[in-house]
Amino acid sequence: MNEDFFVVLNTIASVIVIICTVLSFQLLVGISRELKGLKTMDEMWKNFIIMTNLFILLGITRAVGSISTIIFEGLQPVFEALLSVTLILFFVFAIQLSLSIEEITE
Amino acid sequence: MKKLAFLVGIPLLITENVNALEGINHIDMSGTMVRLISYLLGVCGAAYLAAGLWSRSEKGSESWKYLSVSMILFVFWNIIGTFSILLDVLSIRKSTSGIVISDEALTTYIIIVQILDPVIEVIVFVILLFGLRKIIDAMRTKPWTVFSKEDEEEEKSNE
Question: Which of A16, B17, B52, B135 is the most exposed place for a label (fewest CB within 10 A)?
């Protein structure tokens, strides 16, 4: 397949992901504002906000990485390292969130 | 003290082996290993979270189901990422390590991975956006429905 096809596909996907992540971040800000009204913020919601923020960061890193790699290929290892670090942090907070969800469910 | 020395020695030995591999195959093996491990951790974390969110959606608001589906797709995205790393290593090491695989098959796999990767990425974040919108709508209109389904059902029966 043509190399240009993948460049266009990746660019379109990255632009859509950046738009979605920015909108998701705005919604997350809205959720945290709603939670501020509560006297005590649940541990689950804290973990939920951190995890979703990391997830959004992951999407932005991946999208910006794939666009910048098209422009300058030397940046690829930097974004790959950032992606790995974010994924490891995501793993930690995903486990914490599912543990606190389990506590609430029980 | 011996135990401590042994425990410290293990990572050093692994690093040494990885450096040796790097020298032989001309691949950044340490970086590749970190990427591979992080993708596998991502698979584990997202799968566990998807299960938790799904069970939450069965007892509470349906909006958690969107996030659960997003996490399930994220698992697939990580699996595709893992495959792409393995294919990269395979395509570089093919000539040196004598692995028997046709060029056509390898190219086809790489093309499938390259197409699926951005497509799944987009679907994951679109579903996440809808899920978050559903949750905030539920929090603003009927906050009690976010966690309990019973109240919602009671309300329906009262109506």
Answer: B17
